[in-house]
Amino acid sequence: MHSEDTFSTRAAELIRAGRFFFERGWVPATAGNFSARLDERHVAITVSGRHKGELTAEDFLVVDVEGQVRSEGKRPSAELPLHLQIYQRDESLGAVLHTHSVNATLLSRLHRDVLVLEGYEVLKALRGIGTHEARVEVPIFPNDQDVPRLAARVQEYMAEHPEMHGYLIAGHGLYTWGRSVEEACRHVEAFEFLLACEIEMRRLSR
């Protein structure tokens, strides 16, 4: 069972991430949601509707990996199933981060099905990639207010593409993850840089 210290440490890490992301425009208004694993069976996740640039420890709740809320009186984001799908799939993963940047939102509407990133040195910031010659396919799923159905669709895709580092939801934003909050934050930063490059490439290629 996780300790209060573990909860406080993970919450502090996610609070710092929220400020960093908000200052860069990646989580406007109350958009986005963050979570971190506390132990084998429990996760801390942001309370629904909280501003990610102004989070405090009170803005997190504890939920088990089956989705049972363990913090009385608090409600998680409706997108909780998308976080739990990741934790249930891989016990080594320690954090899931969801952002709503302009670049992620635009590219998810300009492309259908998949966005290909290749030839960028920054790809090496993604876990397991050691060369700029890598090809990373970022799937784009249609947005769906039936989140359990969307999570099932993601799970089905990941079963066939276990190497993926993140995905986009059309008109919505980015999901990525890592073995720790630090690694997941690095993945967000890398993806946002790569998505910004893709937007600029399209602008300059007109």
TrEMBL record:
The protein's matches in SMART domains, at most eight in alphabetical order, are given as: Aldolase_II
Biological process terms from the Gene Ontology for this record are: L-methionine salvage from methylthioadenosine; pentose catabolic process
**Pathway the protein contributes to:** Amino-acid biosynthesis; L-methionine biosynthesis via salvage pathway; L-methionine from S-methyl-5-thio-alpha-D-ribose 1-phosphate: step 2/6
Q: What are the residue boundaries of the Class II aldolase/adducin N-terminal domain, all occurrences included?
A: 12-199
Q: Does the keyword Hydrolase apply?
A: no
What cofactors are annotated for this protein?
Answer: Zn(2+)
Q: Which SUPFAM superfamilies match?
A: AraD/HMP-PK domain-like (SSF53639)
Describe how the cofactor binds.
Binds 1 zinc ion per subunit.
Q: What class of enzyme is it?
A: lyase
Q: List the GO cellular component terms.
A: cytosol
Molecular function terms from GO = aldehyde-lyase activity; methylthioribulose 1-phosphate dehydratase activity; zinc ion binding
Which UniProt keywords are given for this protein, alphabetically ordered? Amino-acid biosynthesis, Lyase, Metal-binding, Methionine biosynthesis, Zinc
Provide the coiled-coil residue spans.
Answer: none
Ligand binding (Zn(2+)): H98, H100
Q: Which reaction does it catalyse?
A: 5-(methylsulfanyl)-D-ribulose 1-phosphate = 5-methylsulfanyl-2,3-dioxopentyl phosphate + H2O
EC no.? 4.2.1.109
Q: Which HAMAP family match?
A: Salvage_MtnB (MF_01677)
Please give the function described in this protein's UniProt entry: Catalyzes the dehydration of methylthioribulose-1-phosphate (MTRu-1-P) into 2,3-diketo-5-methylthiopentyl-1-phosphate (DK-MTP-1-P).
Family classification? Belongs to the aldolase class II family. MtnB subfamily.
The protein in question is named Methylthioribulose-1-phosphate dehydratase
Recorded source organism is: Hyalangium minutum
